[in-house]
Structures
1.
Amino acid sequence: MKNYEVSLKPLTPIHIWSGYESLVGFDIVDFGREICIVDFEKLPQELISQLASSKPQKWSYILRKYRGSIECRIRAKKTFTIPLPPGRKVKIPNDEVVPGSTLKGYIRTSILFWLLRKMPMQQAVNLLKSSINLTVAPKKVATKLEESVFKEKRVKKAGGLIDILQLLTVSDPLAKYNVVFELLKFVTQESIGGKLRTIAENYVIAFTKGTLLFNLRILKPPTSENITNTPPQLLADIKKFEEILNINVNEALKEFGCSILQGEYLRIKNINELREYAEVLSKWFRKYCLTNRNCVIARIGFMTGHQAKTILPLIRSLDQKLYGNILNYLTLYFGKTWDERTFKLVDYLGKKLGVGWCEICLKELN
């Protein structure tokens, strides 16, 4: 078994959405330099009674008045001075900040990218053409591709599929050090003629500082030597599991992360408003992609775009026609244009930067 300590630190603000939103004036209290997501279950009875007998429009005033008695589920720094208007929705982060399932999903995509890159080019192209299905919902488009790479059908009597990555486990954060949340506005901007215009925005509570520690394990696969009189039908299963021994997780993460970084740089390098962002990406490329180290660049979370969540950039480099067909399919399915002209950004530390960038470090344990 291989056992790793994995640390994750944000380089730019990260948001993993919990699926819940809070409302300013209801369960969000704006204290000026920070906001509080109120924990109503822990409010004093006197305050609960006063809220119950008051109009909702007055709740924000009452809660500010009792700020010393309020328990907050989350406190987040607020770097802008303009008060948030009542009714403004704010996306709430996952309780784990970055859950293990999110990290494993990113690792899975990285490994798929890495394995396809290692194939002879024509073999990879043929596999993509035969396994990408544009007649199903987007979440299932690459199901056959993943099955071809990661899975093996069991014998008919057993049924189901063997997935080699079931031997790779990622815990939820085992420790969270100096975690800081900030209320920020993530924007989607479109480039037209080298000029940016905002087409969507979301207020989020983002993870901006601190370190999360995870445990990643690659379990030792079974071998025929472990099983007395190995039944012939199990030999294929065992052979499939053994493929995980050839996967270099750190190398896969590095190649995928650097590919995302290079793709983002090429998209923004000629946009004057994003000049500082391009300089930051160049610095990260030298740090994470031109040296051998146990830390890699990654991009995860809300509003990081299909470039960071799929292998579309690799498909583009291997088969332009298939790439174009996928974009056309997504455009028709979602009713909005899928292209390379939109950027997911945040104003942070005086610069306009892409959201979701982080450093992931792997340390093998004895």
2.
Amino acid sequence: MGNKKFFILNMNPGYDQWHLICRKPAAENVYRSDEVLRAPSGKGLNTARLLHRVGYEDYVCINILGGGTGRLISELARCEGLHCREYPIQDESRINTCVTLEYGQKTISYNAPGPVMSGKEAEGFTRFLCSCISQEEQKSMGEGRPAALEKRQIVPGGMPLIEGKVPESPGKEKTGLVISGAPCRGISLEWFQDILGEAALGGQELFVDISGEWLKEAVEFPLQLLKVNREEFKEVFHVDAFLFTEDLKRFKNGHGIENLIVTDGKNGCIACGSQNTYIWSRIEGMTGGCYAVGSGDSFLGGYLACYGRGLDLKTCVEYGNACGLANTFQLTPAMINKEDVEGLLQYVRTETVGGRGHI
């Protein structure tokens, strides 16, 4: 049986420019860049880049793109060799600018809000997503991998309705839908609910890394993975994963989440698995680099690369941590080397943790 196929939704892509300034300017407020780096971005695209960089190619990154900036993002992603599909919209995709003052070890980020998606475009995107998934399923059948397609009917403004599910072949592999980062403006919570609900009904595994009101909605659906930042988790659900693991267990089981991972930067992460095990994984003996942007996306990509190959939770989390660490040494998010990740695995420490107040 082959690797799991992941469909990664990148719903607010960007074109990033990174300006490196090594010397303090002679004239106040007039900066001359020593180096400029350019790359397509967005949390979903960063995750796709990580998968590609570590040699996991069974994914499709689905980008919502608009205008000349959108075309530029598409071309840059192709030049990287990323497997992408694009859904065009009228409004212009965003441009983000980061200025890194190397002499002062300071980074200033300017992130544009991104385009506004119309209701009609949102309706069209659900049909586009369904089409992408169906085409990949058909391709899998053509390659001789056992699969049984569901009978689907597209309805205006909605995902496919399941008329009568064809019994699955015992060897059928489920695909995974990865939602990383909040949607662009104009997308409603109702639309988001429909995407999650119909994907679950269609037999896809759901992997979610999202925040705010979208996070509250996501946990109402059966998730294979919820990855969330410690402070965000504490703010939204009033649970501190690093202090009250019994509360974390109750939350996970109460919401039917298979694997729950709460990250906290240098403190590592707490992972609650399907067997109700608790894993604390962190970095020891190595100080990370200066570039934190994209480390969470890199962690997710590393996790998926292992999960998609059928590896256990401990291995997935350790590899994810090594990817997150490797990212801190690269200015462009997720632009890491597989060899670097493998070399950093020696600094990952993992242990099983117990009850309240252990950490």
3.
Amino acid sequence: MSSNREIKGIAISYLLAIVGTTLANETFVLKQIVEVLKSYPSIRATHEIYFIWFDFFPALFLFLNGYTMTLAFKSKKQSRRRLMGHYSRRGLVLFALGLLFIGFWPANILIIAGVCFFISPLFIRWDSLVLQILLFSVVLLSTVLGNLDVPIYPSFSGINIIDANAMDIVGFLFFNGYYSVLPWVSFFILGLIFGKTHVRVKGWLPPIGLLGLGIMIAGILVQPFMNKLCGDIGELNVFSTDLIGIRFHSFSFILFQTGLILMVVPAINYFAKKWNETIIGAKLIGWIDRFSSSKYTLYFFVCAQTGILWALIKGGNQTRIFWFKPIYILIPTSLAMLGISFLLVLWWKKKVTDKAPVEWLLKNISGSRK
């Protein structure tokens, strides 16, 4: 039976996903795109809009979470009941860690991954066909709820945890457009379906990759109709190149990212399998696996650095944040934070324990083997 250790490309895909997610988050926080989105209601007729390039990385990350979870259940090294308990507890830990950064990045990957893992025992045992029906339902629901104007709609940038009541939390999680968990849960479910049906490496463009190409094209073609149905998205004018800032409505965004993921993941799995057959390639993949196995810690360290930097720079003087607007300052700063996180992980594994801090916490609280 295949496992995530046998599919070498998973380590590469995970590292790509977490590095891309981290840098995308840095771009949003330091460039203050969140503030632009909050002050942009006159043109934006809906809140359920997504960046097709920036948001590919968290979508890929959540897909891989569902993918590897399915493989863990297939391995049968632990009972299903124990595994479900492990993943539920893991979800609670990640969600709690994500709340630490909700002030400047409301729906960070820790919160979304935590929600996905926590609710996964509800449907992990379902067969592929039922999961496909669930996926289609979640996609439609996310589009509908993201366009509803409901009285429990909270602030677009986040939620006040101290003063929040049950209705505010429901509004934040399901009706809050960009920060709703529903579109992101769909990628986690997609990963579960993929893991149940397409584990074997069958070439760089297998039939599932061709299907993905068709789905991605469908997402592009559907977008104009979504503009007519939900309203034009408009231009942000915060990037020097319009191509970087392309955004889609929820439905077409999910189609586009689903297709792109179904093309990228099999290709990476195929080439990683080939690379692993060479001495240099095997060493490189082994090095990548060391960091991809510490993915949550890498993200956590960057979030912590960003929180400190945000507090120091913003610190009562709103104009100082504009110092980070130029790309020649934004990119080096983001890369420096990521580099520091890599060095901290290396130091921790060498001097303290072979488990990175967040992964150590997940292992000891959830009782999982990873």
